């Protein structure tokens, strides 16, 4: 008879709850049973473990083998428990010592030959093992993820034999090497955008304060070109933010590139994407596009062409910065703190307001087209900017991304000294850092009354004005900052005009 307890971790969203793998050998007919709410891939572990042990020339216990995965009410999925089950069987049968196994955690899928295969979602387990001060054994194929957390004790193995030799004190496992340095790839340059001074200014303000942005204009005026340049003027992510983004990519099965892991992502889903593809979900909750854009930019081109139901699911994540997906057996939470950049045409044909007079859309058609985007969603977008058609003659070349980024970094440094970027200021932070004198307050109240803006839009104008003041290196919000911020509610003004004409 023998009993061994091995520590491992499950995967629930980007969390990695601890799972105790208890292996008991008792007299009886030879059989192998796994209990503790295992799914199909976990139940099949018994066959992989037995074949791997036999082909690795370990002794197979001829007793009754019972494996319990605790807590029993937590669903277990995937082949990540192969290695802890195999180590538990070896320890229970006396083939490896069980003296200090309490200091170790194990994760890995076994092939029938005993070699270890990579597991998906290893990074959350690495972070939790570091918090607990334990050593974690992973397949060598997960080396890149292991290297992202430099101060964690992560050891890599090629096979079950290597793990057993290390536990027996014969040959220690190599420790994962931390990722050295950070390489920032040169992306598209903002200097490629000629003219469009107002849109470029709005892009700089959005980058400086982390604000959401809507670009509206005829086809071919540079809306997508502008949006694709936004990551190039954003600062790199700090380690905490980058690890969260990398953990989401790990859970989603995306390949990580260690040299550029702190670079902000640019996600651009097609307008045919479903709500589940955008927000995440499924019977086994997986992150969607908004979580994969965490810390970066989510670009929605042709915004009115998205299903209205799909767009409405963005409202809560834009406010809370997270997504909670609930299913019958499990609830998963994913971070979703992203910058939303959307682009749209002003009307169905795309040329409403164009000096050429090419638009033949009726006011009713234009109203129906714009009503595909709900008022509450527009309310959550700080900057509404028109990108008009320009003459192609003598367009001046704009500043490069490098020059604009310098100003963005200076403004971000001021905001970080306050505690966070301006777009995330709460009511208390707005009162403290966005205080207005009597004239400025009257100006803002009059604008909100005329444009019929909500209290949320009022706060967002204040946040944008605070960012404009930061770019000007001004301690106070002045009237010109308020005026410019109000000017970026373009779509609110147009909706008000339509309401009066109706």
TrEMBL record:
Entry's PROSITE patterns? Answer: MCM_2
Signal peptide boundaries: none
Tell me the SUPFAM superfamilies matching this sequence. Answer: P-loop containing nucleoside triphosphate hydrolases, Ribosomal protein S5 domain 2-like
Instruction: Provide this UniProt record's keywords sorted from A to Z.
Output: ATP-binding, Hydrolase, Nucleotide-binding, Protease
Q: Which GO terms describe its biological process?
A: proteolysis
> InterPro entries attached here?
AAA+_ATPase, CHLI-like, MCM_dom, Mg_chelat-rel, Mg_chelat-rel_C, Mg_chelatse_chII-like_cat_dom, P-loop_NTPase, Ribosomal_Su5_D2-typ_SF
Q: What is this protein called?
A: ATP-dependent protease
Q: Which organism is it from?
A: Wenzhouxiangella sediminis
